[in-house]
């Protein structure tokens, strides 16, 4: 699919993407990743779109985000260069289960790990369990 250079696209976990849209989660690091995503593009598993949609829904439900702002955020996402993993899920489900078990992750989180591993790309995540699972696999973690 693609290869991992020093400044290239990267696998984007929803934990980082959601931080772009919730004022209480924005940091200098998440802003830098947002700029990098705009410049180089991102790579995501297909489930990313469901997860980001759910983040918007839960954020609105919990009054962390205004419904009127969600459309603007969706337009931002639509403007990004997003490569959605096109490998048939039936071909990766066994790997997802193995990674999930080996690193005590949900299968959802294992999807990001597997994609970064297979594509040789850095992984942007704020999830501590995912960050720890990536270390022994020599997956570069963003933010550093």
Q: Can you describe what's shown?
A:
The chain is an alpha/beta fold. It has one domain (10-142): 3-Layer(aba) Sandwich (Rossmann fold). The chain has helices at residues 14-19, 28-40, 47-61, 67-79, 89-103, 107-119, 128-134; strands spanning 10-12, 42-44, 82-84, 123-124, 141-142. Strands 3-2-1-4-5 form a 5-stranded parallel β-sheet. Helix 7 (128-134) links the parallel strand 4 (123-124) and strand 5 (141-142). Helix 5 crosses helix 6. The two termini are 24 Å apart. Residues 1-5 have low confidence and may be disordered.
Distance from N terminus to C terminus (CA atoms, Å) equals 24 Å
How many distinct beta strands? 5
Give the class-level CATH name: Alpha Beta
- The largest beta-sheet arranges its strands as 3-2-1-4-5
Count of the separate structural domains: 1
What helical percentage do the residues reach?
Answer: 55-70%
CATH topology: Rossmann fold
| Form type | globular
Question: What is the count of DSSP helices, taking H or I runs of 4+ residues?
Answer: 7
CA gyration radius, whole angstroms: 15 Å
Largest sheet: 5 strands, parallel
What is the N-to-C succession of helices and strands? EHHEHHEHHEHE
Briefly note the structural class of the backbone: alpha/beta
Mean pLDDT across every amino acid position: 92
Question: Would you summarize the structure shown here?
Answer:
With 144 residues, this protein is of the alpha/beta class. 57% of the residues lie in helices and 9% in strands.
């Amino acid at each position: 699919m693609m290869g991992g250079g020093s400044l290239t696209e990267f696998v984007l976990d929803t934990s980082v993407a959601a931080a772009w849209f919730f004022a209480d989660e924005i940091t200098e690091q998440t802003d830098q990743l947002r700029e990098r995503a705009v410049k180089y593009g991102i790579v995501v598993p297909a489930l990313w779109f469901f997860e980001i949609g759910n983040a918007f829904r839960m954020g609105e439900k919990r009054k962390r985000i205004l419904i009127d702002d969600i459309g603007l955020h969706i337009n931002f996402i639509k403007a990004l260069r997003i490569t959605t993993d096109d490998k048939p899920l039936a071909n990766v489900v066994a790997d997802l289960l193995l990674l999930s078990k080996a690193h005590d992750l949900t299968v959802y989180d294992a999807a990001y790990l597997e994609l970064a591993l297979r594509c040789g790309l850095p992984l942007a995540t704020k999830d501590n369990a995912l960050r720890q699972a990536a270390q022994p696999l020599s997956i570069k973690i963003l933010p550093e």
